Amino acid sequence: MERSLMRVMHGVVSAVVTYLLVGWGTAFAGDRPVAEECMRCHDVRTYEYELSYSVHAKDKDGKKISCDQCHTPHFNPVTSYYARDEYYDKKIFKPEDFDRRAMQKNVQQSVPAKKCQVCHEDLSKDARGKKISEIGRLSHDAFLGKNGSTRKNCAGCHRNVAHLPEFDRDLLINAEFAKNLADHPMVKALKEGN
């Protein structure tokens, strides 16, 4: 009796795990564009707009970047279920409720280095093939464990390379990115909520 109960429990657990894995896989492997899948829960218009003016607007092959090339898709069965319904999507996931400053650190830590290294394979050179600065070399060596170590991932040092929140636009390092964003007519439309 005990053995058959264990088999039933094992079967139930296996079925639930399989259901969740298949659900996660189909959520991101359908024929809908990745950004459209992300928009089920996230209003990504602002992020797509920022990305289009960043140095990361296109990948190494010159193709438009999609969300999953940098971010790891995540799946929560409860929120995913409710996000499928536009009514709940607009009632539960309101972009104005998100505090980008509070979320920034968590999001930066969740971008895996291996996603960056698909395009940035040689960490001794920049994206144009030029040698990086000595500080950059030492930092990358620490990241690779060659001269000490660091717990930072790429986004720990390379902030705002694809998205640029309002509160970081006045930083000198972001000046060119901020100017490109400010010069675009969509800025006014987004600020007015259109």
Entry keywords:
11 helices, mainly alpha, 194 residues
What do you see in this structure?
This protein is mainly alpha-helical. The protein has a domain at 120-152. The chain has helices spanning 2-29, 34-38, 45-52, 77-83, 86-92, 100-109, 113-116, 134-143, 154-157, 175-182, 186-191. 8% of the residues are buried.
Briefly, what is this?
The protein has a domain at 120-152.
Instruction: Tell how many strands the DSSP assignment holds.
Output: 0
How much is the radius of gyration in Å?
21 Å
Helix/strand/pairing class, anyone?
Answer: mainly alpha
- Mean of residue pLDDT values: 73
Helix content: 40-55%
- Report how far apart the termini are: 64 Å
Largest sheet report: none
User: What would you call the shape?
Assistant: extended
Assess the beta-strand content as a share of residues: under 5%
Order of helices and strands: HHHHHHHHHHH
Total number of helical segments? 11
| Weakly predicted, low-confidence segments | 26-32, 86-90
